[in-house]
Amino acid sequence: GERLILADKIIGKGAAILANILNITEIYTPVISESARLYIEKFSDINVIFDKEVPYIINRTRDGMCPIEKELIEINDCDEAFKKILTTLEKLRKK
Fold first, then answer.
1. pLDDT tens for residues 45-57?
2. Which of 73, 10, 71 is nearest to 39 (CA)?
3. Is 28 in a helix, a strand, or coil?
């Protein structure tokens, strides 16, 4: 089959779920969050190569968790997660 590779500086759970939706086969990243790694292991066939695992992805202001990561903590269903990502991005855009 065809190989679809995603490479990014940071992979959080949102990126992991989107990669799964898009049928990505491999992810290369220096930094992955624990929830992203666990999601990939449990719910996908993605081969992930990373340098460092962090407890969670931090937000832009560096004072808490990334809003998308926070919204997806309990969600593993792709459809539900995709909707949550869109609504979270919309809320962030309005700030």
1. 999 999 999 999 9
2. 73
3. strand
Cα distance between residue 82 and residue 53, in whole Å: 23
Q: How many CB atoms lie within 10 A of CB 88?
A: 18
- In the predicted structure, residue 95 carries a pLDDT above the cut 90: no
Cα–Cα dist 47/54, whole Å = 18
Q: Quick check: pTM over 0.90?
A: yes
| Residue pair 9/30 in contact by the 8 Å Cβ criterion | yes
Distance CA 85, CA 26 (A): 22
Instruction: Please name the residue that has the structure tokens 């855009």.
Output: 93
Measure the CA–CA gap between 27 and 7, rounded to whole angstroms.
6
pLDDT tens string 60-88: 999 999 999 999 999 999 999 999 999 99
